[in-house]
Amino acid sequence: MPLAKEKNGSASISKVTVKEREDEREEEEEEEAITVKSLRDGRWGLYIEGQSTMFGTAMNYVTLRLLGKEAEEEPVERGREWILCHGTATAISSWGKM
């Protein structure tokens, strides 16, 4: 999903509910697990010790948005900025676009 700049330099992704959850704590734990693995400049790798990649960063960015994080929240904002500064999600290798 490519990110398009809109007015104010922000990107827009619609909020989608993947499934209803009975336990908000589970969702918070998932968000925490993703956010603690983000590097200071907003990148993520495919796994904890792995090098940061556009694929890993884009997937974690989208996951956080699907979990309900707002675009202005950290580390979502840093991830988006890193994605936009490094060629957008279209820079993902071909196998990552399937």
Automatic annotation (TrEMBL):
Biased composition (Acidic residues): 23-33
Cellular-component GO terms for this entry: lipid droplet
Gene3D superfamilies with a match to the protein in the record: 1.50.10.20
Residue segments, region Disordered: 1-34
SUPFAM superfamilies found in the cross-reference section: Terpenoid cyclases/Protein prenyltransferases (SSF48239)
A matching Pfam family: SQHop_cyclase_N
TM segment ranges: none
Squalene cyclase N-terminal domain mapped to chain residues: 20-98
GO molecular function, one term: oxidosqualene cyclase activity
UniProt-recorded name of the protein: Squalene cyclase N-terminal domain-containing protein
Lineage summary: Eukaryota, Viridiplantae, Streptophyta, Embryophyta, Tracheophyta
